[in-house]
Amino acid sequence: MQTHPPMSPISLRLPAELKARVQHLAAARQRSANALLVQAVAAFVEREEQREALRQECRAAHEHYLRTGLHVTQAEVKDWAARLGEDREAAPPVCHI
Prior knowledge:
The chain has three helices and no strands. By secondary structure, the protein is mainly alpha-helical. Helix 1 packs across helix 2 (about 35-70).
């Protein structure tokens, strides 16, 4: 027996055209409009959480650079990436000031 997580109702106002599109797609997929909307919201939240995590990682990296001055140049990264396909894998560039 499959158990589902507890659900909590939410009110969502959609423009009439979008509501009709959701209902049409739900009918074509033989699913409820609610199921499609739950799937869409879950996908959106997952994507936005990943974007926020990347944004935070970038912010931390930038703050680290500001504190230490350690970096690699674009040319160094491009040179390293170009060598990745060779027989022996190239070591990544070393951070420097």
